[in-house]
């Protein structure tokens, strides 16, 4: 495709991702410079979605490495199928010497290789999108291993030698900022920070993602979520995904505007734990929320 900033922005819109100009330019630079894109920000602001959209934009495979505490090289790169190898060895013990020799030679063939996301991305015939999700959950040792792989896009398998990438993948890393990432990793990436959207941007997201919603209800939901995030010290602030779910829930109840009853009925969609629901009811409440929404989100917390 003819890659330009305007073309990329149009493609983001085409795939339903409402991106501001800074986001598009940063993604464009990462693509043009052939460097990984590191997207940091609170959970639920659309970090992972960027990788999914890029896979759609380039009509290519999305390969996802989901990070977690204790993730090691074997789970990220490759493993040998030891059970299958053991069965082969046991079967060879009743075979001739020539067959035994063939068995030893073939134990580390393609048949016994368990390809994990990093190796899969490197060996892909087409240029894939490699999503390394929640990189801040792994330890620093794995992080150091990872940025070495990302620098050269090659890996060494002792039984095979060095494998170089057939196509340099588009790499997107995400972080919820649970810990500080190393300078070595950041240096190899183009950095983008995504925060919760403004009410106007969230309004555009709701309109794009929730068919059949009225203009008034879209506006009220976007203002309400922004007001809740700003005024309450919640354990978990509502993400964009929860905003969309809330809008869909209200549409499912045939609402064309917010009301105290509608807010009460749907609190479990926007909040994800009892403490936050109790905090909302004690410090804000449906009626004050609606009053704030009607005043443009300017009313202060009582």
Question: Briefly, what is this?
Answer:
The protein is α/β, with parallel strands linked by helices and 302 residues long. It is built from 16 helices and nine strands.
Total separate domains: 2
Output the CATH class name of the largest domain.
Answer: Alpha Beta
Largest sheet: 5 strands, parallel
Sheet-strand content, in percent, reads 5-15%
Instruction: Provide the gyration radius in Å.
Output: 25 Å
Described by the principal axes of the CA atoms, the overall outline is elongated
The N- to C-terminal Cα distance equals 54 Å
Listing every helix as H and every strand as E from the N terminus to the C terminus, the arrangement reads: HHEHEHEHHEHEHEEEHEHHHHHHH
Query: Spans of 5+ residues with little confidence (pLDDT < 50)?
Result: 298-302
Helical residues, percent: 40-55%
Characterization of this structure:
By secondary structure, this protein is of the alpha/beta class. It has two domains: 5-77 and 116-193, 3-Layer(aba) Sandwich (Rossmann fold); 199-294. The protein has 16 helices and nine strands. The strands form three sheets. A five-stranded parallel β-sheet has the order 2-5-8-1-9, sandwiched between helices. A hairpin with a 3-residue loop joins strand 6 and strand 7 (161-164). Helix 1 (5-14) packs across helix 2 (21-33), helix 10 (199-209) crosses helix 11 and helix 10 crosses helix 12 (240-252). It starts with a helix and ends in an 8-residue tail after the last helix. Residues 298-302 have low confidence and may be disordered.
């Amino acid at each position: 495709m003819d890659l330009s900033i305007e073309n990329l922005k149009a493609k983001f819109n085409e795939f339903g991702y409402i991106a501001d100009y800074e986001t598009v330019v940063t993604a464009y630079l990462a693509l043009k410079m052939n460097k990984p894109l590191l997207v940091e920000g609170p959970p639920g602001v659309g970090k992972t979605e960027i990788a999914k959209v890029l896979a759609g934009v380039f009509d290519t495979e999305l390969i996802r490495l989901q990070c977690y505490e204790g993730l090691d090289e074997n789970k990220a790169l490759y493993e040998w199928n030891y059970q299958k190898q053991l069965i082969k060895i046991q079967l060879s013990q009743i075979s001739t010497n020539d067959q035994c020799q063939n068995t030893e030679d073939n134990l580390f063939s393609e048949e016994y290789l368990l390809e994990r996301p990093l190796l899969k991305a490197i060996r892909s015939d087409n240029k894939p999108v490699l999503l390394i999700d929640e990189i801040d959950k792994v330890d620093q040792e794995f992080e150091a291993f990872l940025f070495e792989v990302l620098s050269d896009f090659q890996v060494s398998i002792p039984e095979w030698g060095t494998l170089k990438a057939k196509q340099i993948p588009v790499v997107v890393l995400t972080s919820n900022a649970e810990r500080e990432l190393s300078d070595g990793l950041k240096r190899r990436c183009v950095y983008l920070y995504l925060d919760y959207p403004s009410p106007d941007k969230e309004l555009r997201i709701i309109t794009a993602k929730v068919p059949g919603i009225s203009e008034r209800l879209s506006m009220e939901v976007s203002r309400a979520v922004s007001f809740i995030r700003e005024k309450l010290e919640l354990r978990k602030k509502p993400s964009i995904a929860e905003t969309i779910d809330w809008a869909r829930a209200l549409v499912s109840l045939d609402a064309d505007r917010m009301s105290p009853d509608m807010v009460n009925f749907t609190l479990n969609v926007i909040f994800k734990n009892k403490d936050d629901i109790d905090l909302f009811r004690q410090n804000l409440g449906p009626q004050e929320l609606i009053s704030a929404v009607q005043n443009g989100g300017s009313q202060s917390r009582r």
